[in-house]
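Troubleshooting log. The previous structure file for this entry was overwritten by mistake, so regenerating from the original sequence record. Sequence copied from the archived sheet and checked twice against the printout by T.R.
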Amino acid sequence: MSGAKTILVVEDEDLVREYIVSALQLEGYNVLAAADSLEALRICEGSQRPIHLLVTDVVMPRMSGGDLAEQARRTRQDLSVLYVSGYAPNAIERQGVLAPNAHFLEKPFGIDELVDAVREILDEGQ
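Regenerated output below.
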């Protein structure tokens, strides 16, 4: 189980966001959810609880997941990030959207893949 780790999920597609949130809650994580980057930044700045992991879509309206992570780390320096996208990771890297060593999960993904990726990233941060 997760301990009491808090994860912020940012996804502009409602069904995908609900899928990710439900899967992580079933694993015992505290989950905060945002429909876009601006809402996510408000949560980062306003939440009193620690946020251990940001799970964000790469391509979203207004601000990319990479830009969101960069801005969120201004107030949450130790924030780990898992990027998710329907685009192939090499296509995203070629466009300079993500660093080559970024944690990435390609959509569609199963619950086990998601949970394993989250656990691995959170274990690295300990």
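The mean pLDDT is 90. Archived copy saved in two places this time.
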